[in-house]
Amino acid sequence: MEDQKLEDRRLGGVQSRDGRHARVVDKFVDHGAPLSFGALSLAIVPPTTRYLVLDLDRTTHLGRNLGELLGWELCAHLAYGPERLAELEAHRRGRFCFDWSHPWSLVRYLCLGIRLWAYAGLYYLAWGKIGARLDGLRRRAYRRFGTEPIREVQRVPQTALFHQLSMLPLDTLRNLARNVWMRHRSDQVIEREDLEALRARCPNLRIILSSASPTPMVEVAAEMLGADDFFASAIDEHDGYLSAPFGGHRLLKLEREPRRLSPPSKIHFNASYAKIRRIVERYPDFCDPEVIKVGMTDNGYGEDQCWTEFFNIVADLNSNTPFSPIVTPTSPLFEVHSARVLTHAERATGRLDARRKLEESKATARQLDDNALRARLGAVLAEIEDLASRYEASATSIASALARVKARTSELRERIETQVRNYNEDHGPERRAVLGRIRSALSEELDLRRQIARIERPVSELAYALTKQLEYARASL
Questions:
Q1: How far does Cα 133 stand from its chain's mean position?
Q2: How far apart are CA 217 and CA 128, in angstroms?
Q3: What string of DSSP letters covers 213-267?
Q4: Which of 31, 218, 242, 391 is at a distance of 20 to 30 A from 340, taking alpha carbons?
Q5: How far apart are CA 75 and CA 69, in angstroms?
Q6: What are 347-382's pLDDT values in tens digits?
């Protein structure tokens, strides 16, 4: 199933036979004060559930992005070496590693971080984190990047991380990922024992971990949790190494030419609708309306909002962007849950983490059925209906122009594919010239992406307005 077919399942993309574009879910539940994952899953995962899909970053752990942490772990490994890093392990906290007793190694560590992460980090800070909080900048992001700006913005740090990962053997990357996982044990909110208890209660359950983090980190997480399967952001592997992505060489100030490049066809950023597409490809019955599916994620910055169009039950865990109770008429979703889930340390000590806001600890549990939701959200539903209708009309009006530019983009990607193959096969002086041609093609691609954004601008404006209304609906509860 292609991403575009999946993306049609959004507000403005589908409507019911009576012409409606939106409805409220059957039940909305805010679970109130923090509780254990075991108690939460007992309340929301039916015994007949076939698929439980879990996000990774900031979902399995409170406030921890494990993919990002793997990048910083790699910087420390390259700067200090494995022996010194092992000596420092007992004193490590958070993402950074400052060894003041070895000043030259510390300088190397800082320089590595700046060279590889300065541009990507500032880019994501501006368009991702700050952009999510300032309406003016956020609206501009929709105009600049399209209907899902967070997905596009994330590709810059993801590309930087892929370049880092290509520097070391896969076995080393997996060891570093295990170190990251073990170091943040105290922040873990979903544990292997929780999932084993779920399996005992749900005999046909398949547990899937799906994340935008890279394969080495998600692979280790799936191993630690005992998940049945996993999906991650992936790139071409060759001779025990990950290949480097074909883009980002100048922006990231790389010191050397990459050992090997990954062609476009073998790079997969596992985000938004792409997460669903890969699950459907491997498990065709996932879209069967009779199959019960539960999804759990932190839904940070709304990046997994599309899950409401494919699951029967969704839950946002420790989220700064909880799910909205308004979906399309064709969505199978009937329950939305919002929960604050206790960490390993919180359960062990009985004290809440200092990062939690005071109101989180005093939140009151509440439940609303569809009648109560319609009564409270009637005005919002009416506004969403109007916006979704306009979105549908606008998307239809730009379809042919958009298709023409996307066809040119596909042709350009085929040219890049050929040039990447030439780069990998040529180990002589011509290699640098091939890399130059790839960079030139990337400039053309950037121009085409800008053209697509300009064509999509009317639709992107409406997508922004719809997103704001969905967030307002959730805040109204």
A1: 18
A2: 22
A3: EEHHHHHHHHHHHT-SEEEEEB--EETTEEPEESS-TTTTT-SS--SSEEPGGG-
A4: 218
A5: 10
A6: 999 999 988 876 666 678 899 999 999 999 999 999
